[in-house]
Amino acid sequence: MMTKRGFDRDVMLLLVLATAKLVFHVATNGQYGFHRDELQFLSDARHLDWGFVAYPPLTPFLGRIEWEWFGASLAGFRFFPALAQSIVFVVAGLMVKRIGGGRAAMLVAAFAVALGPVSLSGSALFMYVTFDFLWYVLLAYFVVCRIESGDARWWLAIGAMVGLGMMTKYTAAFFAAGVAAGVLLTPLRADLRGKWLWCGVALSLLIFLPNLIWLYRHDFVTFDMLQFIHARDMRIGRADGFLLQQLYIASNPFTVPLWLLGLWNVFATERGRRWRILGWMALVPFAIFVVARGRGYYAAPLYPMLIATGAVQLQAVIEGMGAAKWRRTAWAASFVIVLCGAIVLRICLPLVPVNSPAWARVNDLNGDFREQFGWPELVREVARIRDGLTPEERAQTGIWASNYGEAGALDLYGPQYGLPQAWSAANSFWLRGPYGPTPLNMIVVGADRKDLDAPCTTVELAGHTRNDAGVANEETKYHPNIFLCRGVRKPLVESWPKLVEFM
Fold first, then answer.
1. What percent of the chain has pLDDT over 90?
2. 3-class SS of residue 78
């Protein structure tokens, strides 16, 4: 039987390793610059509401806390993501302990989860995926606590995680469906006759209620946006390859045997039968993602609990070996295999110097890196164009940003150049507009020349989008020109409802 002292030593070991992980990420997350998605979160964080066009409100709320604490610090803005995935490391290990694994199994699982591509990338970028991942890992842990302790009050914690998940990313509803199916298909259905499960359901709904009211008041605009994005993803092939991507995006290829062993444990062994709900919590959302044609990384939060049960099954297999030296060799081999997964570190984390010999390969494998360059330069170029106008023209000229990265960059860096609030119809920038009387002229970023003749009297090529590192990205490749449009023909307020751009 595990002693309290032994448990405390294991917890302390996990905390020390997680702290080292956190320090590592804080030290390395300041390379490159803000990602275009982070710029959107930053802008929304400074315009808090109970909902946003592209996502629920919790991630911008966390961004607001970081903005108040760290300002425009890149490493500071990524502190919560690094902290979230360090917590995931600890919880993965604790899940193994609750299920009955020893220290070696605990460490194998914790490192296997931490080396998952989504967990690694989520440590280095401020995205809702990071926190969505955390909530479901915690939810799975609390389900394990409910089973291991026999205390139905754990449903309150489970309900809180469902609520936080729904306030982070709406795919949490699929994860909740997995929990519901698991309850119905396992002995936990007895909890349906008690009060605590229903109290957990009520708590999850209470947490989600403010966003639900916001959605109702805004005609469920987010679901219009999600339908548009899904149709776009289907059209351009982003939903293709979902099954194959489970092996190298949603999980680390070196840890696939471990989560397969976890599935075997909960569905095919008598020892694992007690934890079968974890299998249903993985399979049901997975099936929904397959049918709904989700993107590969959506299923990433499903694997930590399977890795935990797989580590416990691995322990059972190793303990069945005869000689102690074989057991030690087997554990050593298991650690080596899992740690080989560290090969993805430089693909997922901002470690490779830009334009170094390894940069081209890393940039090809991870397109997020190149989208972290050029935003300050873009705003500087817009300011240069504005400053070249006469004082009279300057007073009558606004700025139009065609996507949320450009709008977020102008929102963040524009004030230091005295630039006015940029106009944009992208996602929640559209919801916050229109931004006052329509300017006579517009500096237009991110648009195609052919789209400007109708709304403007004259169109002049005024500048270009570049970055000091010379990195080719979406801005420099697909809309590198900045235009000065004089004589905006119609007040934007008249056409504003039709201008919305979902992206």
1. 93
2. coil
